[in-house]
Every structure is written in C-alpha cells, then in structure tokens.
Amino acid sequence: CGTTQAEKDAATPVEKLYADAMDDAEGANYDRAIKALDRIEGKAAGSILAQQAQLELAYLYWKTADKVQALATIDRFIKLHPSSPALDYALYLRGVINFNDDLGWLSTFTGQNLAERDQAAARESYQSFKQLSEQFPDSKYTPDARIRMDFTVNMLAEYEVRVANYYMRRGAYVAAANRAKESVIEFPQTASTAEALHVMVLSYDKLGLTQLRDDAQRVLNKNFPDSTFSDTKPKSAWWKFW
Amino acid sequence: CSTVESVTSGLNEPASLKGFIAFVSPYKPDVIQGNVVTTEQITQVKPGMTKVQVKEILGSPLITDPFHADRWDYVFTLKRQGFDDQQRAFAVVFEKDAVLKIDAPVLPSEDEFVASISRKKLPTSTPKLELTDAERAALPPPVAIAAPAASAVVLPGATRAYPPLEPAAP
Amino acid sequence: IEPFQIRDIRVEGLQRTDPGSVFSVMPFRVGDSYSDEKAAAALRALFATGLFKDVRIDVEGDVVVVIVDERATIASVNFLGTKEFDKDTLVKALKDAGIGEGLPFDKAIVDRAEQEIKRQYLGHSLYAAEVVTTVTPLERNRVNVTFKVSEGDVAHIRDIRIIGAKAFSESKLIDQLDLTTGGWLTWYTKSDRYSRTKLNADLEKLRAFYLNKGYLEFDITSTQVTISPDKQTISVTIAVTEGQPYVVTAVRLEGNYLGRDAQFKNLITIKPGASYHGDDVTATTRAFTDLFGTYGYAFAHVEPRTEVDRKTGQVVVVLVADPGRRAYVRRVNLSGNTITRDEVIRREFRQFESAWYDGSKIKLSRDRVDRLGFFSSVDVDTNDVPGAPDQVDLTVNVVEKPTGNLTLAAGYSQADKISLTGSIKKENVFGSGNYIALDVSTAHTNKNLSISETNPYFTDDGISRTFDIYYRTSRPLNSSGDAYAVSTPGFDVRFGLPYSEYDTVFVGIGAEQTHIGSLQGVPNSYFDFVGQFGSYANSYPITAGWSRDERDSGISPTAGRYIRANTDFSLWGDVQYARMNGQVTQYFDLGNHFSLGVNAEVGYGTGLNGKEYPVFKNFYGGGLGSVRVFEQGSLGKGTVDVTGAFIGGSKKLNINNELYIPVPGADKDKSLRLFAFLDAGNVWTEHDHMDLGTLRASAGLGLSWTSPVGPFKLSYGLPIRAEPNDRIQRFQFQVGTAF
C-alpha cells in the first residue's frame, strides 16, 4: 500500500527533513517549506533543531505576509524557550513582523505616510524592539532595532500631532490640546514635539486659557528657540488629488 | 456660498435670522467639547477638599496641563447649528492635594443648560395621560380567572414519562 | 537549612527541555546565598513554566541539586470519528488551549479539553456523543494524543407542549417559539435541535408575547425537558399561569426630567384606556434614554413601575427616571486601517474626543464609516479609562477590503466587430478616501474615454467635489458603410452640500461640444441633429439634485431607504434640453435573515424651446442593473438604430424587487447575497408617451458577491411580459477583478 506523504515524512530522519525545507525556502517554494517545518516542530519537539525550525517557520510566515501565524509562532517560541541563545533574534523578528513599513512601491510617490495608519501594530513593534535593546544591549540586532525604535517613536508622535491638527481645523480645541499633550508627554524628544507644543498654544488660546497658553509658549521657546511655527498649516498642493 | 447671503439680506428681518441662515446653509455637525459643570455642582466644592472629592463632584477634568500639576481646568465649548455658541472655563487650583481656590464665573443651572441646548421649544400640548374617573368606571370588569392550579410535579399532558434530561428548572 | 553560599547548581532529570530555560527562571545563581524562601520561589517558578510534572530541590554540601520530572511533549494531536465539527478547527482550537504539537503534555488540561468537547456536542443536541482520549507514549518522552469520538445521531425535538394557557391556543403560542418539532426548513435552521440557551430565549419570547397582550402577571411556573432512553427524541413541556389582562388607566412621570417634562411626555406611546402593551413601554423607555443621551446623560436609567389593581384589572404605569452622571469620551482610537488614512475614518465620526458620550452619535458614526464601502466590517468598542470612572476610550475596529475594481468586457457584435470596454474604478485611492474612475471603451462604432474624480471632503465640513472629463466619439456605420464621426468632448464639476446627516444637495455646471464630422452618409436621426444644431453644437448643462441615504450599510444594506433625484438642463447654447431622473430604493428587514429590496427608477428628458432632445443624452433599459433577462440597453420600441446600435430613448422607467435569501456563510461575508428578483420596465422615445401597457417584465434568481477576486453579478431568469422581437438573454453575468 502506498505510503502517504505524512508517513513518508515520519520515516525520514528529522535532519534530512530540515535540509529539504531549507532548500525549498531558498527556492522560494515557501508553502512546501512551511509544511515541512511545521512537521519538524512537532516531531523534533524540545531539541535545538525544533527551535531553529520554529524560527525559520516564523520568518517564512512573515515572508508570505501571513502576519497572524507569524506572530503566533514567534510568541510560542519566546514562551517555550525563554533562555534560548536566539532569543534576541526572536524579539527582533517579532518587532519587524509588526513594523509593517512597506506601503507598496507607489507610497513614495503618493506620499502615503505611515503616521496616518494603524498605530496599534506600531506600538507593539516598539515594545519588542525596546525589550530587545534592554535585554540584549550588545546583540547584533540591537543597533537596527534602535533605529527602528526612533522611527516608530517619531511616527507615533507625528500621528498624535496630525490628529491634533485635524481637531484644530474642526474647532474641537480641547481634543486638539489633549492629543498634542499626549504627543509631548509620551514621546518627549521627537521631531514633532515643537509642533505639538505649538498646537497646545493655539488651542489654549482659542479656549481663552491665557495662563496655560503663555506657559506652553515659554516651554516651546526655551526648548525650540529657532522653531518658526506659522499659525496655519499649509493646505496640500492643489494638484494633489489624494 | 455667496448666493445664500444675498437671499437672506433681501428679506425683511425674519423672526430668527440665525435660524433661517442655519436652515439654508449646509449642515455642520455639532462640535461639543469639555466638561459640563453647573451651579449645583460648583457650589458643593469647598476649599480644602481633596482631589478625589473634587473629581467625585465635578467629574474628571478633561484638561490637566502637563506644566501645571496642581491645576485642573474645567472648560466647556459648544457649537451647534442654529444655536448661540457657548464657551465657559474655570480652574481649580490645589496645594498639596487640597483645594486652594476656585475662580468660577457664573455657571448655568442644570435645567437652564439643558434648555439652552435643546432643539425644540418646550411643547405646550401634551398627550392625554390620565383617564377621567368617568372613563375609568366605564372600563369592562376583568374576565373571571380560575385560581391557578397547583403545579403538579408530573405535568398533566406530558406524553412520554422519560427521565428528565436536566433538573426541572424552577 | 541555614543559608550558605552556593558553589554549584546541578539539574537532573532533563531529557529534552534545554537547561537554559531552567536556569533563567531560578531566582538564585552560583555564588548567591541559598535559603528556604528562595527554594520555595524556585519551585513555584519552575512549576509555572508548565514544563515539569514534578520538581524537587536537594542540597549536597554547598551544591544545589534540582531534580525535575519532565512532562512528556506532545508529538501529535488528532481526532477520529468527528463529523459534526471539522477536524482542523478542533486541532487549532486545542493548540490555542495548550494542547498541540511540541507543547508539554498536561493531563489536567487534556481532561478539561475532553469535557469541553463533550459540552460542545451537547450544545449541538448530540446527546449520545462519547469522547474517549487515549495517550500513547512514544520514545524520547513524547506522547500522541488521540480523541476518539462516537457522535451518535442528533436528538430531535418530537413534541412541545404548553400547559395552562387559556387566553391563546397552544399552537399560536408554539408559533412564537424558535424551537420547532421539525419542518421542511429545519435541515437548514436546525430549529428542532434542543439547547438550553435556545429554550431560555424562547421563554423570554413567550413572556414578551403575553406582556404585549396586557398579561402583567404572566409567569412560567416550570419547564420540563425529557429525553428518550435511546437519546433520540426530546419532548419539551412548559407550564404557565396567565393571570388576567390589564388595562392602562394612567401614565405618570417620577424622578428628574431636567425640567423638560412636557418634552418627555410627548414621547410616550402608551395609550391610557388601551390594554397594557409591553412593546410600547420598552419603546417609550428607549425614547427617554435617547433624549437623555442628547443632553450628555449617556447612562441615564428609566425604570417602568406598574401599580396594579387586581380587582378592577387596571394598572397605572409610572416611569421613574434617573439621569445619572455625564460620561465623556477621552480618545477615539482606530485599528485595522493599514491602508486607509486616519482622517478618512475620523472625519465621519460625529462623536468628538474630549466630549460627552452620545450613544446615538456613535451609532450614526459607525453607520457612516460602514457606508463608505471601504471596509468589510466596522465595529466600535468602549474601554474604560483607568483612574477616571466617568471617561471611556472608543476603539473603532475596521477590516479593510479591496475597493478598486477593474472590469474588462470584450464583446463581438456584427456592427462593432471586436469591442473592448473596460473601466477602472478605485475608491479610497491610496487610502485617501477619494474616488477615481477611468472608463475606456474602444468599440469600433463608439469610443469613449472618461475620467472622473470625487473628493468627498473638499471642505472639512464634508462638501464634496466631483470632476468629470470625457471625450466621446461615435462613428456609427450607416447602411451603405460610409463612416462619419460624432465627437463630444466635455467636462463638468459638481459639488455636494450636506444638509443633514442623510441629505445632500448637488449643484454643478458643465460644458460640452458636439461636433459632427463629414455629413455624407449620416443616418437620419443624426442628419436632423445637424440640421437643427449645426455641426458644432455647444451646451452648458447645469445639474441640480438631492439625495437622502439612510441605508444601514454600503455593501449589503438590509434596512433603510435611499432616494435620489437630479435634473440637468441646458438653457442656452445650441443644444437645449432638460433631463430629470429619480430613484427610490427601500429595504425591508423581514426578520431571520430575509430582507426585501424594492427599487424604482424613472427618467424623463425633453428638448427645450422647440429643439429636439439630444440623442446621446438618452436613457437605456435592459440588462443587469435595469430589467434583467433583456439584453443590455435593448429595451424600448424605436430605440434600435437602423444600424443595429442601441440608441436608447428619452423616457425610462424600471422597477426591481429583490428578495434576499439567507445563504450559509453569508454572515461571515456580508457581500454574498442570493436573491429572487422580479423586474419590470421599458424605454420610450421622445415621440411616444410612457404607455405602461408596453412594460416588459422578468423574474428569476440572482447572485451578487464582492469576492476577493472582484465584484461578481449573475442572474438567470425568464421573461414574463415580452414582445416577440425582444432580445432575451436568460443568463447574464458581469465579472470584474478587485485590486
């Protein structure tokens, strides 16, 4: 009787299975590689090879844009092998999975800006990189993690300021002040802090809270003496139809 | 849009010019912001009260400026089409978790505030909510009901006396 | 043991877990001092990892020995004999619960899983189901876990009895219940399968039924559910005491009504003198809470109290109101918008941040975001704000779906030879919320290139602007085969001004020039045209319109109404005409997933100041989106040019009824809709009046689905009223690809 694929897998030694999976992955035959690695994770459970297979599996899921499975696999790895030497790579991969920075080849041309998109994933990615840089300060992934952390922090801060500006335009000054405050407190030293302080000054002014306005202006001038914030934000160019 | 202005200015003064302009100008959604605080609430706040007590009476302040830890600002603004704009603000200043001073302007009472933002005037006519005694007497007497039968454990009419699947619910 | 300095730590009993995970959890290292509390902490930590069945710590001199009894690792999990539930979802569910390949084997979790599976079977009325778990040990401390299930047959409800009901017949009461004793639809609704939750829901329905008939003291004394020994037949018996019907004599208000009692009284729908109706009371209390909501009292509490007089069978209803405290929304967070810009969603939200919580505004905002048509699901959660009892944060969860579609239709017709018509439409382009469409059709007889762009928020308050630029050339062959060209370049701009949450008024202006090329060989309808308008005919159409959109969703509405009326007329220039068209679509929710959509469209155009109505402004009838089963654009006497091209007519009427039938899987994908349709309609030329006698009609089945591949419409039907020479197409479909 013919042996099914599963039985054939069960017979071959785990190492060979892993080697085949790696060849598939090189040959960009990701789905077959993923199935093989899934088998290895089960069969060789507990061995170092299983840990390696799990990491490869998470990487391949991310490569095939299956974010949910990728996160589930990497979280399982971190829970099962808290002290594995590859933990720094696992944390780094987890951060990258959530990083979601590519908006398609058009994004540079269309000016699609990450600071206007889903922030929950960005915060998640920030936490993973933060844990990586604190637990493994000298891991080879930490430098890149720090760069991505700065990028994420700047982006999160800019997101708050963009929303603050929106509420400014709609005349919801309390909402604008609070969103700007959020950006100043949670992400103090970023590129948008000056603008955030400026929005606070404007909205306090509209609300007639003169004392708060003057103090915020003082903080703005002290920390960002050369910032020249004109009152209104320039409306986007007329030909920009998106 | 310009056409609207010329139309209204030509009319003799309609009863509520504001209302008419609101009717013809495009719809602007309401913009309501901040805490609503009324005289009934503000009079209860006494100097020396703790922050928790103030929060209980006035509600959590929506503006807590990061550079003024001991100052809570209660601000309220309202922009609603066809209504006058409203804007009020006052601050509660603390000193080591005790109210130092409140400089509050005159605040509307609860009912005044609600009246100021409701769309319709108070209706004069209300539906009839009470039968007169005569109508009540004319009502038909209730149909005689048999006293409820004592609920037997084995219910009459159960076709199959099988073991209960679950304990009989009360 | 008095504390001492640890010289070394040894771990025994490890088979597969890597030592690192033991050391990383231990609260002490080599060189630290050792004490009993640290030992206890180490034990707890090691157990917490879930990797070990048993852990002991011994001390030999100043060496700490940790003896672990490692849990076996699960090599595989599988199910035998499962028919009711599909195997993969079970395996996946167990993996999330901690039983999966590579995870430590824990007897307690497996037992709990077995109970859970049995409970699932009871929920599906499979009372004879047996679940047996076998754990087969393998080498290197691994185990296989197999759940052997014998499902047995489904237990069906054979009879339902309601005892003690006098005012209403037993069958009428049983009709109110969802549980049934089987019928022709139960293969789908499975309503003859018993479950406790379904019974509780039915008891509530019964109570509401009686309350609505005035039986205030109605009570369900007991319910008895019995099952046959072979666990196949279930009988349900419900005992009730009805009490007597009551008549409402007065309605009074109590509690704090913010000094606006008169306004609240006007909302009361309970009529004194009529019998007590439970629905009226609930409708009134809801109206009260909504009104309180508009004043910022989001959590107002309105309690109806009944003062009953048994002797006279009369009741006084007292509505007690407590506005409670005002609640505020601190932040509105969005999640799931990986493509759509934050502002595109936020600008639809009527509930602002740092503003009082208004439930009706939040519901309206949710509907508005849903009506954008960019998302397959939109829902709003409220989560508390720590440290501020009267503040909440809102989170808007959206699931994006591809919003562009590229429809390419190739056709071959005797007149046009090969014609390619294609249109690329993309809503929410680059996530900006704007809509762009490019229509290209290169049929030999008429070429058409039109680009249109809409920015729904040209101004922050929602005034929209739409640009259309088009260049149409039509080169109809006349009977003797000579070609001549009619080209119409033009553009128009339209503004949409919102006048309420649902109404929008459109105003717009355009310019259009019609140029007839060489004159020889022009068919008569065009010859008259040039005679009247000259070879260069300019027209400056002004458009004015109004639309009210109250549908509950953009993709698949089940309730609400949509009305649209617009006119465009050209008062000066060579071509002068007026063209009106209106549309009303009303959706009725018929309950348990059935809904009916009725759509009526009328179009009427006439020339002005004695000029003829321009032929390219004609309406067309027939095909998908109009009267199905008739070929696209073929409806109407005199609307087919001598050359066989459809030129439409100046008057149009079509009525479509669609009864949406519940389809398994439709709840997961809202855009999948199966419906039975009944269409009627026709097109008339300028000279004959709209004679309803000549209406064509058709009926049949249709399917519409925005699949991941793209929008897909299909209809199969029969003509009911047709003339012999109508062009019938029983089967019509349209497919596009989404991107």
Which key phrases capture this entry?
heterotrimer; B: 170 residues; alpha+beta; four-stranded antiparallel beta sheet; 6 helices; 4 strands; 15% strand; extended; disordered N terminus; C: 739 residues; 18-stranded antiparallel beta sheet; four-stranded mixed beta sheet; 12 helices; 36 strands; 17% helix; globular
Describe the structure.
The complex is a heterotrimer of chains A (242), B (170) and C (739). Chain A contains 12 helices and no strands. Chain A is an all-alpha fold and 242 residues long. Chain B is built from 6 helices and 4 strands; from the N terminus they run H-H-E-H-H-E-E-E-H-H. Chain B has helices at residues 2-10, 17-24, 39-42, 51-58, 110-117, 133-137; strands spanning 31-34, 71-79, 86-94, 99-102. By secondary structure, chain C is an alpha+beta fold. Chain C has an 18-stranded antiparallel beta sheet that branches. In chain C, a hairpin with a 3-residue loop joins strand 7 (130-138) and strand 8. Chains in contact: A-B, A-C, B-C. At the B-C interface, strand 1 and helix 5 of B face strand 9, strand 10, strand 11, strand 12 and helix 8 of C.
Radius of gyration of chain B (CA) equals 30 Å
Give the spatial strand order of the biggest sheet of chain B.
1-2-3-4
Q: Using DSSP, what is the number of strands of chain C?
A: 36
Mean pLDDT of chain B: 74
- Calculate the terminal CA-CA distance of chain C, rounded to whole Å: 71 Å
Fraction in beta strands of chain B: 15-25%
The rough form of chain B would be described as: extended
Spans of at least 5 consecutive residues with low confidence of chain C: 477-481
Largest interface: B-C, 58 and 75 residues
Total DSSP helices of chain C: 12
Helix content of chain B: 10-25%
Secondary-structure class of chain C: alpha+beta
Query: From the helix content, strand content and strand pairing of chain B, which structural class follows?
Result: alpha+beta
- Tell how many strands the DSSP assignment of chain B holds: 4
Give the overall silhouette of chain C: globular
